[in-house]
Amino acid sequence: MFKDSPIEEIQSVMQQAWQAFHVYRKLSLKQRAAFMREIAKEIELSGDELIQTAMQETNLPEARLRGERARTIFQLNSYADFCENGQWLDARIDTPIPGKTPPKPDIRKILIPLGPVVVFGASNFPFAYSTAGGDTACAFAAGCPVIVKAHPAHAKTSEMVATAIMKAVANSYLPKGVFAHVHGTDISVGEALVKHPYTKAVGFTGSFTGGKQLFDWGNQRKEPIPVFAEMGSVNPVFLLPEKIKTDAAEIAKQYAASITLGAGQFCTNPGIIIGIDNDDLNTFMDALSGEIKLITPAPMLHAGIYKNYVEKRAAALSQPDVETVAVAEQDAAFMEATATIASTTAEIFMQNPLLHQEVFGPYSIIIRCSDITEMKEVAINLEGQLTATLMATENDIINNNDLVEAVKNLCGRMLLNSVPTGVEVCLAMQHGGPFPATTDSRFTSVGADGIKRFARPIAFQNWPDSLLPDELKNDNPLNIWRTVDNKPSTDKLV
């Protein structure tokens, strides 16, 4: 059991991070990338002991954890590559026109690091969204020191990953303050970290309550800071008429697997399914029920998540005019989640905000609509989401443009004829959405574009070439892509 880090320790940690920032920010892109690859190497060298520790703390199976560690290593290496190629800097050069009235100056712009970043580890991903996860990798790539607050549900795992990062810091001959690791179950630890004047940004993945509190603290400071919080999402699925008529049983099979994957403990779990109340929807519901009844209960990550699932599931099922459609038939042991499907009408759903809330676990509610118009009304009334899915033919899309536009307006990633669980780590990925899914829908927490969360633009006007950053110099010594007079180029400037 790790003790909460005292305020005095946090003060010291932040002081060291601030001092390290003025060294680390000056490192070349190549040096930052090399450091990130060193972290990846050290995590891999942690071997079976790291996997076994995570298994003991999280109830996650070995295969899942090995896959997640591999994803974490891939994130570090791929973000290192992107850091090094400089594309994320968004370098822009507008050359001067002295003869213009008034004269046009020489203006050059790039992104520079914000400063120390505090990262709060997620409970459901002990590797990929925690100590050395995407937020940490993005901050390091941007040129920012990182302070991680370990999630108490897997504190030993976090400590082991932190040790790997610290080894990489030493191996890379970097200042100690480039990385720090603290513990805390009391709210005061998080508050002290967010409110410290040397903290310049925050990354968080977790509940709406936790994320909103961090966001409020960040904005209530004398100097407000960006808080990038991924919070809650029910990831609605819209079953359009032509598609459901022909593929109801196959869709049901797909979604039974998606709803129950990892005991439903994914931020992209499909928690709401919307369709038109007719024979085709009944066929889908019957097929989904048959699949759900056969699902074996699976252990949840920890007692807190299990308790929340049991309570929120019970609260949803107890609401007036909510029907329990299917429950897994096998008895569940303590801390095992029972897969459940509920149903209600669109009218009841839109009148009851509690039914909009995420039930974090293997649960989904089917919303029965009278027609396409009512499906659109449901979409309009939904809060911001990470994902939204259309199960639809091409004709369904063409014939229901208003619904498609309403769905587009509520999410960060819009899927067609697939499931939302599974988030590919790639540059085109958008893992973020309108509030309350995240606190800033303009950014992603997955993919190398997430680096931009921890950087800010600065423009240099009329600076001599010799004093400019390498990224903006005339001869382009880093050979990066730049926008020069509105055209992308890697050319040297004459």
Your description of this structure?
Helices cover 40% and strands 18% of the residues. By secondary structure, it is of the alpha/beta class. The protein has two domains: 7-231 and 441-455, Aldehyde Dehydrogenase, Chain A, domain 1 (3-Layer(aba) Sandwich), CATH 3.40.605; 237-416, Aldehyde Dehydrogenase, Chain A, domain 2, CATH 3.40.309. The strands form four sheets. A seven-stranded mixed β-sheet has the order 11-13-14-9-8-15-16, sandwiched between helices. The chain has a five-stranded mixed β-sheet with strand order 17-2-1-18-19, with no helix packed on it. It has a five-stranded parallel β-sheet with strand order 5-4-3-6-7, sandwiched between helices. Strand 6 (201-205), helix 8 and strand 7 (227-230) form a beta-alpha-beta unit. Helix 2 (29-45) packs antiparallel against helix 4. The longest helix is centred in the N-terminal third of the chain and has 24 residues, at 62-85. It is globular, with a radius of gyration of 24 Å. The protein starts with 6 loop residues before the first helix and ends in a 5-residue tail after the last strand. The mean pLDDT is 97.
Distance between the termini: 62 Å
Main pleated sheet: 7 strands, mixed
CATH topology of the largest domain: Aldehyde Dehydrogenase, Chain A, domain 1
What is the name of the CATH superfamily of the largest domain? Answer: Aldehyde Dehydrogenase, Chain A, domain 1
Uncertain segments of ≥5 residues (pLDDT<50)?
A: none
Shape-level CATH architecture of the largest domain: 3-Layer(aba) Sandwich
How many DSSP E strands? 19
Largest beta sheet: strand ordering: 11-13-14-9-8-15-16
Global Rg = 24 Å
Outline, from the CA principal axes?
globular
Strand content: 15-25%
What oligomeric arrangement do these chains adopt?
A: single chain
**CATH class type of the largest domain:** Alpha Beta
